[in-house]
Amino acid sequence: MNNPFTLSFGKKPLQYVSRISQTREIIDNFNAVEPSSQIYMLTGVRGSGKTVMMTGIANELKEMEEWVVVELNPTRDLLQSLAAKLYSQPEMHAHFVQARLDFSILGLGVSLENATPITDIENAIELMLGEFQRRQKKILIAIDEITNCEYVRVFASSFQIFLRQDYPIYLLMTGLYDNIYNLQNEKALTFLYRAPKVMLEPLNYTAVRQRYMDIFGLDTEKAGEMAGLTKGYPFAFQVLGYLCWENKGKKSIEEILPEYDQYLEEYVYSKIWSEVSSKDQEILLVMSQSGETKVKNIREKAGMNSELFSVYRDRLKRKGILDTGTYGEVSFALPRFAEFVLAKMV
């Protein structure tokens, strides 16, 4: 049997732990008669499973007769891509022709006799959405790893119009916190502030432990040790599983740790470190060197007042680096990140 774990990003692994409650929240809301929101944003640190969760939701909705799922590339013209993919839906093409919708000037389909060509891409999408609506179809648009670029800004502005016109169109986007924050702060896109943002929490400890028990035939204690080493971080779950599979009967968990640290650093942690400010790095170094978790002690060691420290603490939390779940304390949310920081300072 091949290694059931993967080190690749974006692809659904053979072995993974699903986020049942967060996934169900989104699917149930999208399927509601009166959904509270038609947009969800999935955010979390690199390697937190945003793409896998989005793919799982999209695949589940694909299985439902009333849903059409369209995946778009955020580096291309999103409106043009959406129009092309809507037009290419096999069950809808004949309805577009029957409705005398001529999109030939936009590069979609052929010219229709005695039909006025449609020249505006946004208008073309609205007309197609109307046909989907008449046939009681819902459309999910899935966009992975958005950034604050022109294509995304134009698309988001048009999507807001589609929502106001009450079309059955839904949007699921993933992105790093900074990218989503920058996008929603655009003057014309403040409606995105109201869209629910799902911060991906750590995987369930019990589920991770059970998965390791089932795959490796371990007892509760040994599988629990492995689960603890991942801290529920999805990429770490894959890396540790991958290494244990490759070294079955050859190395102990302790012997695998250096290689485990190396994979985390090279694949994720170095990039995360490069994206935080020097002041963020200073706080993380103080935590790593001292082992402190008390906010008051960390703040004093970093030479910050309470108000300033709160700004950095909250930002590091949103970036998925710190866990602030215990009142008056902070700790690393990522496994062996303290060891990584200390190694960077050598």
Notes on the structure:
This protein is of the alpha/beta class and 346 residues long. It has three domains: 20-199, Rossmann fold (3-Layer(aba) Sandwich); 205-273, no CATH class; 277-344, Arc Repressor Mutant, subunit A (Orthogonal Bundle). It is built from 15 helices and seven strands. The chain has helices spanning 20-31, 50-62, 78-87, 90-98, 121-134, 150-164, 177-184, 205-216, 220-230, 234-246, 253-274, 278-290, 295-302, 306-318, 337-344; strands at 39-43, 67-72, 138-143, 169-175, 197-199, 322-323, 331-332. The chain starts with 19 loop residues before the first helix and ends with a helix. 34% of the residues are buried.
Descriptive terms for the model:
346 residues; two-stranded antiparallel ribbon; 15 helices; 7 strands
Strand content: 5-15%
Strand order of the largest sheet: 2-3-4-1-5
Order of helices and strands: HEHEHHHEHEHEHHHHHHHEEH
Helix content: 40-55%
The CATH architecture category of the largest domain equals: 3-Layer(aba) Sandwich
Q: How many domains in all?
A: 3
Q: Briefly, what CATH class of the largest domain?
A: Alpha Beta
Number of strands: 7
Number of helices: 15
Which regions are unreliable across 5 or more consecutive residues at pLDDT < 50? none
CATH fold-level label of the largest domain: Rossmann fold
CA distance, first residue to last residue: 41 Å
- Shape estimate: globular
State the CATH superfamily name of the largest domain: P-loop containing nucleotide triphosphate hydrolases
